[in-house]
Amino acid sequence: YLRDKHAIMHRDVKPSNILVNSSGEIKICDFGVSGQLIDSMANSFVGTRSYMSPERLQGTHYSVQSDIWSLGLSLVEMAIGMYPIPPPDAKTLAAIFGPRSDTDSPDHTKGPRPMAIFELLDYIVNEPPPKLPSGIFTDEFKDFVDRCLKKNSDDRADLKTLMNHTWIKKAESEDVDIA
Known about the structure:
Blueprint: H1 2-6, E1 8-9, E2 18-20, E3 26-28, E4 35-36, H2 54-57, H3 65-80, H4 90-97, H5 117-126, H6 139-148, H7 159-163, H8 166-173
Antiparallel strand pairs: 1-4, 2-3
Helix pairs in contact: 3-6
Protein name: Dual specificity mitogen-activated protein kinase kinase dSOR1
Keywords: ATP-binding, Kinase, Nucleotide-binding, Serine/threonine-protein kinase, Transferase, Tyrosine-protein kinase
Domain Protein kinase: 1-168
């Protein structure tokens, strides 16, 4: 709606700016750094760097496709319960998604070592994008996320494609009550 009707891109999509009500309706908040698109491109450096798309981190012109990258990254984080860059190793994923036991110790869920900000930004630009682990999430959800997290913005799915994606259509048809 904001993109089509008002030519606005959010520029700071991240988990803390995504709200879900008890009916499962999703709202985006905090439009403090949103901006109006001029000729479908933007070039200001605002937003939370760790959720920025590779093209934004490289300082090139960007479009609403950068919000799609941020959405994909946010979905992975919300799905696995931790920031996904660098990706968690098999031991960490097993601790998150495996069966719980009384012998699990807190050091099994520490995740990857923290990265310095420049190291993190370099990783986002130069390393493969995060992926959801196999065997845990539906193929439709994994495909949706993969379409969001293409390094090249031209390869990323556009909003219309994503809104018609099987995962979205299934979610729209389900009754949700998380109250």
